[in-house]
Write a structure and sequence with these properties.
20 helices, 2 strands, 1% strand, mainly alpha
């Protein structure tokens, strides 16, 4: 058990490097992160190929990574062709309403799509008084918590849909939790932003409330390509057709978008390159950690809804939240295997249907935690690091990995998530 866990060290090492090196050795990190990420991933790949002689997990993970980067990359390219020229009234109330709309859109466009479309106008709106908390709360609300109502919203919920969770079950079961979490986050943001606005020089306040730019939407043809990508999410056969549609939409979008729009968005492939190479290492190195969890979940003493909430939440903070969702869903099904008898030993859809009928709170706990806790770190959910990279490219001072966790996630987000857990999942 412990020897198997040792093979999670490359994953832990990579997480440590992502957390420390950009701050301690910034220039070295910028030059060598590709080699470090791929090198640590290669250690695990060679272990599975030549020591275990078991390439199946590698092939499965490679397919997941290809699907992941196809979705992230295509949405990045297509959204880069959409330019929203904002009116610029970045008052606390206007900002709060913007984030609220972004949270709703995240359930239609997905957290990735909503983040990529809205992050650029968000940065432009607040350019006269932009601080780290503007980026962080955007990640909290638009890139994570906002997408908690539909399977389109966040990858873990889509995986649940594929496993047999009805499309509208999530919305019917989760909406009070989603509304409470979103309401608290928006209220906290409003207080932060009001203080920031009050401290701004009077000439900056005048700019925020008196600019006369009109809202203008450019690159309308990319809405079609965006819908094309979102529609392809539901295509499962034949293999790779979904990804082919996504990449085709991205290629057509890039070709048909004017150079002027790309320049207005400061568009470049730098952010998606960084995310792509880092997640190569993350996907590869997390294989042993996830297999260990799946193999020994029943020995960890996790049985109550609250334990499932905190267990899946904590791991979603440092692992990709989609495979974490699947592992805890499997653990929940395993707990009630004897109770369900033949029903639980049928197809995956029948197993999930039994759990939904008899013990729905377990799927509620896993769903909420996987989505909400994905905001605890930059690597908890795919859009997080992409938003950070785009903000860095725009010369916005974003917090480092540790600063994000210590200054924002732990003191602000974690207490809110604790309240959610105490109210809904303490039984």
């Amino acid at each position: 058990m412990l020897i198997e866990l040792l093979w999670a060290l490359p994953f832990v090492t990579l997480l440590g490097c992502i957390a420390i090196l950009p701050l301690a050795q910034k220039h070295w990190w910028e030059k060598n992160f590709v080699f470090l990420s791929c090198g640590l991933g290669l250690i695990v790949v060679l272990h599975y190929l030549f020591q275990l002689r078991n390439p199946s997990p590698l092939l499965h993970t490679a397919h997941e990574y290809f699907s992941f980067i196809s979705l992230i990359g295509s949405l990045f390219v297509v959204s880069g062709g959409i330019h929203i020229r904002v009116k610029g009234e970045a008052t606390p109330l206007a900002n709060t309403l913007f984030l609220m709309v972004g949270a709703v859109l995240a359930n239609v466009l997905g957290t990735t799509g909503a983040s990529m479309v809205l992050i650029r106008p968000w940065l432009r709106m607040n350019k006269y008084r932009l601080t780290a908390f503007h980026v962080v709360f955007f990640i909290f609300i638009v890139s994570n918590v906002g997408g908690g109502l539909t399977p389109i919203g966040d990858p873990p919920l889509f995986l649940g849909y594929l496993k047999g969770v009805p499309f509208f079950w999530v919305m019917n079961a989760i909406w009070p939790i989603w509304l409470l979490a979103l309401g608290i986050l928006l209220a906290v943001f409003f207080v932060f932003d009001a203080v920031n606005f009050a401290r701004a020089p009077r000439d900056v306040q005048a700019k925020e409330t008196g600019r006369g730019e009109e809202w203008k939407f450019e690159g309308g043809q990319n809405v079609f390509f965006l819908l094309m990508i979102l529609g392809s999410v539901f295509v499962n056969h034949p293999v790779f057709l979904r990804e082919t549609i996504m990449l085709a939409a991205a290629a057509l979008s890039y070709k048909m978008t004017s150079k002027q729009i790309h320049e207005s968005n400061d568009f470049s492939f730098g952010p998606i390159k960084e995310v792509g190479f880092l997640f190569v290492g993350i996907f590869a190195t997390m294989i042993p950690a996830l297999e260990w969890l799946e193999r020994y979940a029943d020995q960890l003493g996790i049985h109550s809804p609250g334990q499932f909430y905190w267990g899946s939440g904590i791991l979603s903070s440092v692992l990709d939240n989609a495979p974490t969702y699947l592992n805890f869903l499997s653990a929940a099904l395993g707990i009630f295997a004897a109770e369900g008898g033949a029903a639980v030993h049928g197809t995956a859809g029948h197993e999930v249907a039994y759990l939904l009928a008899q013990h729905p709170i377990y799927i509620e706990a896993i769903s909420v935690a996987s989505v909400f806790f994905g905001a605890m770190t930059y690597i908890g959910n795919g859009p997080n690091f992409l938003v950070k990279s785009m903000a860095d490219q725009a010369k916005v001072k974003t917090p480092s990995f540790f600063a994000y966790v210590l200054n924002f996630s732990l003191p602000i987000l974690l207490p809110i998530l604790a309240v959610i857990g105490w109210i809904f999942f303490r039984g």
